[in-house]
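Researcher: I've been going back and forth with a colleague about how Aldo/keto reductase might be arranged in three dimensions. Neither of us has a model we trust, so I'd like an independent prediction. The organism is Halalkalibacillus sediminis, in case that matters for your notes. Sequence below.
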Amino acid sequence: MIKNLQDTYTLNNGVQMPGVGLGVYKADDGEEVTSAVRTAIDHGYRLIDTASFYGNERGVGEGIRESSMNQNDIFLTSKVWNDEQGYDETLRAFEASLGRFGFNNLDMYLIHWPVPGKFKETWKALERLYDERVIQAIGVSNFHKHHLEDLMKDANVKPAVNQVEYHPHLSQGELKPFCDKHDIRMQAWSPLKRGKLFDEPTVADIAREHGRTPAQIILRWDLQTGVATIPKSTNKERIVENADIFNFELSEHDMTRLKNMNIDDRTGPNPDEMFK
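Model: Here is an independent structure prediction for Aldo/keto reductase. You can compare it with whatever you and your colleague have in mind.
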């Protein structure tokens, strides 16, 4: 169990990844994302998650440089976008991302979506970058169980992480046991379902019982289910609030109530529908 904001999960290759991080999807490049990253790091966050598709890698790099910590102390993740996939294309996309960050390496690089007919070649490129030690860990995002099974048939390196939409309305009942079995750490994007869970009676009741906000209850649920989490915000108060989840514990009854909220409802696309 993650005990504090700097505490880590050990990935399947031995790399230590912080269990809680800052997501920056939809944060504007420039001062908005730079300020959010700087604020998060200065308040104890040690993982920043972005992607080439977000268009803010340059600002993320600047935020890290302006923060109170050295780049080597921050776990930085980016992702290769759909139209960048393929072997040679991915290698070029990675170099472009490094150029925007202004760094020489990344901690983790993910395939953003399982593009049919391309994600296996993309993975080969990630394996090459991993072998060259310019990435500490490689993984995927938005992969269903069958995508992972297909990928691992030919992979030399098993994905360390599968970053997926995960919250009480989408508890990934088939995918999570598969990832647990194969030692692939799940990481939750949109863990708060873009605020749509805050007024749910179950969440609101548990929040009142613990004297916590609904966001804190949901993020604590992530940790107690063994899922890393990357809530996104550019608001200083929310960034700080989202990190204050280590001095209380949800009961088994709380956990069951939250698990029973699952309705397999998504805010983002279903990976099987994305490319039809």
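Researcher: What would you highlight for our discussion?
Model: I'd start with this: The radius of gyration is 18 Å. After that, consider the following. Residues 16-196+225-244 form a domain with the TIM Barrel fold (CATH 3.20.20.100).
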